Amino acid sequence: MRKPLVAGNWKMNGSVGSVEALLEGIKAGMGEIGNTSVAVCAPAIFIPQTQARLQGSGVAWGGQDLSIHAAGAYTGEIAAAMLLDFGCKYVIVGHSERRTYHAESDALVADKVEMARKAGLTPIFCIGETLEEREQGITEQVVARQISAVITKYGVEALGDSVIAYEPVWAIGTGKTATPEQAQDVHAFIRSLVAKESPEIADRILILYGGSMKPDNAAELMSKPDIDGGLIGGASLKASDFLAICKAGG
Ligand code: PEP
To answer: Which one from 104, 114, 129, 167 is the annotated catalytic residue?
Structure first.
């Protein structure tokens, strides 16, 4: 039985004051969350504050990106060891905004998944097709290519300690959500791809849905057999909405 995970992706949002209020709001509502793991992925500069507020709260935290290098002359980058030093459990890897705006290739994303995993972080490995790719009918080809970039280079074991987030790019921040059936079909396909290499990893790996998940659609999405939670952008910035989605996880 997979325990659902709901993870917030704050992206490049927040201030010291708003982060304080958001974290206090989330903590205050944690008593009402059932059997769902909860995490927030903060901008790097707010990770120390997030750690200080969330320690002992049952909410985990993480980063939004990491370097493929361990340390050294890589201005502006954040190393896995630094995230670990500040108590991070998770790190988002290969978000479509990084693939698009920072030209992250499948190969680079695979290296980041491996770097995170080797260091002891849980990568939240993001995959998903653009609107154009969906309209061309190549969604499965796209997610297969993104996953096989990891499996071919590092083996299916690299996914053994990972979380996959299926995030159709056309649904991110657009208010358009994949229907529960559309999402379930792709999630089942992703699990079948992993199962070809390792039925055991396929059975336990969490596959989150991301893309305009909100309090009013979360329960239906997460009721699908292969949807194990959500990666939440916009709705994770409001404690009441985020908590409502966490509650929908069960
Ligand atoms: C995301 O960026 O990971 C995301 C799912 O965003 P939103 O919920 O705002 O669509």
So the answer is: 167
